[in-house]
Amino acid sequence: MLTSDVHIFVFCWPRVVDNVLHICRELRDLPAAKTVVDVSDTPPRVVDDWEWISISPAAHFGGQFAFALRILSRPILFNIVGDMESTDWGGVVSACVQAFDQLPYLGVWAAEVDNTAWQTERVAIQRIGDTNLYTTAQSDCCVWAIHQSIAERLKALDFKSNNIGWGIDWAAIAASYASGRIVVRDKSVTIHHPPGTGYQPKAAHTQMTTFLSQLSLPEKALLNVLYRSIGAAPTPSWEGRVLIDIGQK
Fold first, then answer.
1. What pLDDT, on a 0 to 100 scale, did the predictor assign at position 243?
2. Which terminus has fewer CB within 10 Å in the chain: N or C?
């Protein structure tokens, strides 16, 4: 696996434009495909060889991710949410590429991100040898990457009801394990996540439940096992409390 096998997507919205520009400049020398998916009301920016695409300002993470899936041009989709911070973005991408190169059965890779409910100590399943990689029950989707085969599975889902985007990571995780691929958290790279969220939890949860109802029976079964493995959330929220109705699909 090479850096040129990666398509980097950075998600931009009005208040994070400056940080997104910084990320773009940090990654400008990489031979990866590079796209900003922007929902701000500012004109597209010109940053070296980055493709800057403006979509509907009404789109949130779900809408941006669905768009990224449609235009994915490389075997690995690498996604950075626009308010994330790192002291070495090039090193983050390199760590991801190395993991996919070392693990041919890797489905989802994710960096260690602070200020989220899904800290590695809570969601890790098993350390892989003496590496900094851990199989995990939850990847988070702040700085993460998915294999093309998982991207194809996600493309088959209807994103229209999930503009906010909660549950996209769960769908990718379930698709990975159900297809014989693994999900890993990489503790060699740490990302800073500014505390807080701009989403309404109730609306996000409702959209997530509808979205995940599309999963296959094996994927739903795996998802419920993973939910139970990490238990209830440490603070009142949707995590750990919502089980997917198995249904007949």
1. 53
2. C
Q: Domain spanning 3-230: which superfamily?
A: Spore Coat Polysaccharide Biosynthesis Protein SpsA; Chain A (3.90.550.10)
d(C-alpha 42, C-alpha 115), whole Å: 29
Give 152-170 as a DSSP string: HHHHTS--TT-SS-TTHHH
Q: Where are the domains of the chain?
A: 3-230
Cβ atoms of 55 and 45 closer than 8 Å: no
User: How high is the pLDDT of residue 234?
Assistant: 34
Q: Which two tokens stand for residue 233?
A: 């959330």
CA nearest to 226, candidates 214, 247, 212: 212
* HSE of 138, CA atoms in CB hemisphere, 13 A: 24
Instruction: Indicate if the pLDDT at residue 75 is higher than 60.
Output: yes
Residues 15-46 pLDDT 10s:
999 999 999 999 999 999 999 999 988 877 88
**In 3-state terms, what secondary structure has residue 44?**
coil
Burial class (CB in 10 A: 0-12, 13-18, 19+), 18: exposed
CA 87 to chain centre: 20
For the segment 133-149, the average pLDDT, to the nearest whole number, is 96
